[in-house]
Amino acid sequence: MLNIQNLTTSYGQIKAIRGITLEVPEGKIVSLIGANGAGKTTTMRTIAGQLKPEAGTITFCGQRIEGSRPHQIVKAGLALVPEGRAILGKMTVLENLEMGAFQRNDAQGIKDDMEKMMTWFPILKERLSQLGGTMSGGQQQMLAIARALMSRPKLLLLDEPSMGLAPIVVADIFKVVKEINAEGTTVLIVEQNVKQALKIADYGYVLEAGQIVLDGTGVALLNDERVKEAYLGGR
Ligand code: ATP
């Protein structure tokens, strides 16, 4: 579904990612793990069209998308939940969700999806008229994911959904990501929470200093000595 070849993105002189090659097959969950500053957010922002790559290709559903505008990429079926969530704090939960569907005009489909969000995220149902900014971190993350899903993406990109959240909330988020995937949405997730991200992943890639240094199934990476040593506290 998503195929990235030799992708390089720079900030001025700094090459934040250098020749990344990875694949996200349809129906799967793929995790990209790495430490702070490894280039995870840069990768996601490049895929979502917010940064222009210096070199390489991004093919999504058979179509080249590198260098396309962010709204064209959403329209093609790809939605990013950015690091830090970026929900609209002064808008209500309902308005945030409606914003996610702004490029659609299938009223019935939007209504159906809104109902589906209420099932996946019951907490949002209770709080439709609450301002987004007044919700807890975990609730805001749920809202950010639900908002992205309102564009009915084929591929959902999650940039560090567990950041700053308590372990119990993190577990809820990963559980719902699995459910979303089971209902047909392909997922690419970047995380510093290596254990959780590999547990739910069909396949994973390890990013270090802008390059992929290791890849394998989620299980294989969880049991890999190098991953254990560097990311799982040597366990
Ligand atoms: P984090 O977990 O902190 O988000 P990350 O793995 O997502 O880390 P990136 O944010 O992609 O990493 O950053 C990769 C590299 O690019 C880092 O060395 C970072 O300092 C640099 N970088 C990121 N954003 C910018 C920017 N706007 N201008 C210059 N350098 C940047």
UniProtKB/TrEMBL annotation:
InterPro entries: AAA+_ATPase, ABC_branched_ATPase_LivF/BraG, ABC_transporter-like_ATP-bd, ABC_transporter-like_CS, BCAA_Transport_ATP-bd_LivF, P-loop_NTPase
Family annotation (SUPFAM superfamilies): P-loop containing nucleoside triphosphate hydrolases
Ranges for domain ABC transporter: 2-234
Superkingdom of origin organism: Bacteria
Pfam families reported in the protein's UniProt record: ABC_tran (PF00005)
Gene3D superfamilies reported for this sequence: P-loop containing nucleotide triphosphate hydrolases (3.40.50.300)
GO BP term (any one): L-amino acid transport
Claim: Lipid biosynthesis is one of the keywords in the record: no
Keywords: Amino-acid transport, ATP-binding, Nucleotide-binding, Transport
GO MF term list: ATP binding; ATP hydrolysis activity; branched-chain amino acid transmembrane transporter activity
Entry's family note: Belongs to the ABC transporter superfamily.
Name of the protein in question: ABC transporter ATP binding protein
